[in-house]
Amino acid sequence: MIDEAILAAVPESLRAEYKADVVYRIGMLLFRRGQPGIVAHLVETGAMAPAVQNLAMSNPIGTGIQIAGQIAGQAIQAKQNKKIIAGIETLQTMGLSNLALTGVGIGATLVSHALLSARLDRIQNSVESMQDTLDRISRKLEALEREAIQRDLLALQSACERAEDGLEEKSNRLLEKASEELRSLQRIFYSHAQVLRNTQRFDEMEPFVDAYALAGSTRITCNIALDNLPRAIKAAEQFGMNLSVLVEPVGLADLIAEKAAQAVLRSGTPQYVVAFESLREQAALRRSSYLERSQVALSAPHTLQQIQLLGVSGQAFLERVRSETEQPVLLLMGSKQKD
């Protein structure tokens, strides 16, 4: 068992400091102004999925920010207990309402085959909705042929289910096999997303980023469960770096231009001027969600290094965060603490 002082609920005092802008967040890392080093790490738990499952299943990554603030209302309507509501309020206070939508949390995102199936269905539906466009592109790019994409998505589902079985059965054999399969699938989905980004097709890119994130985060979880924290850290570093390289260069102007083209709006025309503010707002939301996903992924190596420094086993860490039923996020203390 992990000492409760190591992984605990976010205290009211820290939430107050966050509200007062004394403490600020980058990804899943908390910092205190004027103080060097990481104050604490925020860790997603098994309670995150039930809190936002309906939202996560119905919103693509590019629109996640638009639903911020709805979670607390859902929790209250569902008549959750006070601790759960307090945990949801923490998500709101710290701007983490869309954490589950990023798909890059450490270890707790996949906690059931039902949730896995729903996430994969969302990716599949996104791909199918743009299949005509992908078919046109695939005439030049064989890697994006419909049959190849369907085969890769089925392989992703199989690998993730194997990983979840390995976690439930504590089977190193299944976890190792899943990790290797997911490593190959990461390369495939990253390549698809990169091609579409380079051709300025960001709508079509997003489900492949989602698939890449699912493969990458699940692979990291496999290595944590195998108690191979050095390998998990290396995988997390590679994953975060590649994700940031993929999405961070997509700028506001790129996203505005894509939507303007879809609406057949030409820059400099009266119609474009009228529509510009709406286009800019939509683009800003998408850009923000891209950056949030990248920052959360880049946080993971720091958190895993802190777990290793504390001498906590990967299995014990996963069991603690995946079994949590009340707090959507827990606090792991960082290297610098307030005197």
Notable characteristics:
single chain, mainly alpha, 5-stranded antiparallel sheet, 14 helices
Overview of this protein structure:
- By secondary structure, the protein is mainly alpha-helical.
- It has one domain (7-333).
- 66% of the residues lie in helices and 6% in strands.
- The chain is built from 14 helices and 5 strands.
- The chain has helices spanning 12-19, 48-58, 70-77, 82-93, 99-102, 113-129, 131-138, 146-169, 172-198, 202-225, 229-247, 252-262, 270-309, 314-323; strands at 7-8, 23-26, 29-32, 40-44, 329-333.
- It has a 5-stranded antiparallel β-sheet with strand order 1-5-4-3-2.
- Strand 2 (23-26) and strand 3 form a beta hairpin.
- The longest helix has 40 residues, at 270-309.
- It starts with 6 loop residues before the first strand and ends in a 6-residue tail after the last strand.
- 45% of the residues are buried.
Condensed summary:
The chain has helices at residues 12-19, 48-58, 70-77, 82-93, 99-102, 113-129, 131-138, 146-169, 172-198, 202-225, 229-247, 252-262, 270-309, 314-323; strands at residues 7-8, 23-26, 29-32, 40-44, 329-333. It is mainly alpha-helical.
